[in-house]
Amino acid sequence: MVHRANGLVLDHGCTVNPRFADALAATYDASPTITDLSSKKCKAVLDAWTNEHTGGLIPESAVTLSFDLHLLWLRGTPATEPSMDNACIYIHPA
User: I need a surface site. Which of 26, 44, 83, 90 has the fewest CB within 10 A?
Assistant: First the structure.
């Protein structure tokens, strides 16, 4: 089943303030995942998240991983909400 979903994925060198993690969980029903954002293992994690939260309609993530990627905000919404397209925010260092 397709449903609204949010996720935060941080690179393995990042730390998360516990208050931020609590606010993220309370506000967006998402908890941070820390992994190597340039690894094939991470791509498999993102593909599984995308497949699960789109009810299999989108089998894999379109994210391109790289060594300078530090954070991904994942958002999936039902197809019945056309004003809220699926989104992924990439944050690279300046």
Answer: 83
Assess contact for 58 and 47: CB atoms under 8 A: no
- Helix or strand or coil: residue 93? coil
pTM for the complete prediction?
A: 0.68
Kindly give, in sequence order, each residue whose CB lies less than 8 Å from that of residue 80, ignoring residues fewer than 6 positions away.
Answer: none
Neighbour count for residue 65 (Cβ, 10 Å): 18
H/E stretch holding 89 reads strand 87-91
Region for residue 55 given its phi and psi (left: phi exceeds 0; alpha: psi -120 to 50; beta: otherwise): left
